[in-house]
Amino acid sequence: MDAVGNMSNYLKTELLKACLKGQTFTGKSQLYLALYTSDPMPDDDGSEVSGDKYSRKTVNFSTPADVDGQIAVMNTNKIEFAVADGDYGRVTHIGIRDATTGGNLLFFAQLDAPIEYIDNTGILLQPSDLIVYLT
Q1: Name one Pfam family in it (predicted).
Q2: What 3 state SS string does 18-77 have?
Q3: 0.90 exceeded by the pTM?
């Protein structure tokens, strides 16, 4: 899977307010991986996959550590998206969000290679497949 390093405008704003203005920002204890058929962009205006069996999946992360010279976290759990019951589209991007529906986009990335999420196919990420880093 691909590394995620793009931050949403929401997260950038909250981090700047916390670090430079002393305002409180509390991250969510539970985060979710979302699939997109277009770039979510920093403004969170991409097209998320839709389909009867699609839903965002819980993602758990490791403690921050050096990964190839960058501070990063990796998923510690297996992430399995249901087998599609139709054509859910070409997945080109992923996003980390703070709610099962709606909520805020935190990080996003383009996949190295798009995934065709079509009838009778699922998507599976093994532990350490997803790397989130700050540059």
Answers
A1: Gp80
A2: HHHHCCCCCCCCCEEEEEECCCCCCCCCCCECCCCCCCCEEECECCCEEECCEEEEEECC
A3: yes
CA separation for the pair 98, 129 (Å, rounded): 20
Per-residue CA distances from 33 to 21, 91, 111 (Å): 30, 13, 13
The pair phi, psi for residue 14, each rounded to 5°, is -65, -40
pLDDT tens for each residue of 68-96: 888 999 999 999 999 999 999 999 999 99
Which position has the token pair 């980390």?
A: 96
Amino acid in the structure at residue 125: L
Across-strand partners of 90? 116
Strand-pair partners of 95:
34, 108
Tokens linked to 34: 């979302």
